[in-house]
Design brief:
The protein is built from two helices and five strands, in the order E-H-E-E-E-E-H. It is an alpha+beta fold. The strands form two sheets. Strands 1-3-2 form a three-stranded antiparallel sheet, covered by helices on one side.
Length: 129
């Protein structure tokens, strides 16, 4: 069963302009902070940054390796709700002293739907076969 999902996004390549932020390093740090905070608001946990090779076309017939920096995030996958096989009714049966428990029958499979029941003829008697 899958417990986590992952998201990989490209890291910022340049900084952002903002009031009271001077210098390329501070602008880049502000861009990273904004991105990390946006992802955290969506429930993603920062895992790591990786620099990975990417093979890209260069011209018509050649290719070159370009190194890309990506940010890796993860978050837990929400658990699927458990289905309940018993349904409780609010009103107790007289004399039982407790709630009535009614089992829920599962839906019929395709084979069960096609199997004829003896003595149960659903055909219209006025209609000729």
């Amino acid at each position: 069963m899958k417990t986590h999902e992952y998201k990989v996004i490209p890291a910022p390549t340049k900084g952002e302009k903002a009031k009271a932020i001077k210098g390329a390093e501070a602008k880049f740090a502000a861009a990273m902070s904004r991105l990390l905070n946006e992802m955290a608001e969506q429930g993603w946990d920062y895992i790591r940054a990786d620099t990975l090779p990417s093979e890209e076309r260069s011209g018509l017939t050649s290719s070159q390796t370009v190194w890309r920096t990506v940010l890796v995030f993860s978050r837990p996958v929400p658990a699927a709700p458990q289905s309940v096989a018993v349904q409780h009714e609010a009103a107790p049966v007289a004399g039982s002293g407790g709630p009535v428990v009614t089992p829920i029958t599962p839906p019929a499979t395709a084979e069960e739907k096609l199997t004829p029941v003896p003595g149960n003829d659903d055909r219209d008697p006025d209609r000729a076969s």
